[in-house]
Amino acid sequence: MWTPRHRGARTSVGEGDGAGVGPAAPAVGVPADIEFSPSDATAMLIALWTKVRPDQMTATDSIETLVEGVSSRRNQLLLDLGVEFGLGAIDGAADAELADLYKTVTRMAKGYTAFGPVLSDAVGDALRRLTGPTGKRPNYVAERVTGTWGLGQGWADHVVAAVVMGAREGASLRGGDLATLAPANPWHRRRPGPAH
Question: 39 phi and psi, to 5 degrees?
Fold first, then answer.
């Protein structure tokens, strides 16, 4: 499951609606914004491209192991990494352990802001698939985070990434479902049967 690196933040449901017992909790300031870093974007892009869940990628994996040595897949993923960050070739990227690759991309991709051209397309397609049947625009998720919740753009980027990664369809190449959120397709809920 995609999880922001800052796990301490929680949202609470029911505050001020009489659902709790006792006095209302004191107002708390808005959490500081968090960065959606080049390493976060690299992990997201690799997981999307290789059809695995982020929790199935280890620090010692490499692009080469994740594409199972298929050169055409490796070359396309390396090209997409370069395009996402506006970089040329990243020396040794195919065989670098992911932990090292994240550091290299972070060092090289100064000024990166989410999402670059490759992830923007992937995120847009995924959000249209998810929000289209509800009549919402693809940017609804980010607007809800920044507007309703009053959080910064970094939080919005992490939430969008979590939704996109957690609502993927199909099976992971490393076993299990890609989806970590339920339902993966909200409009595919079972329709009620005829009334008896």
Answer: -70, -35
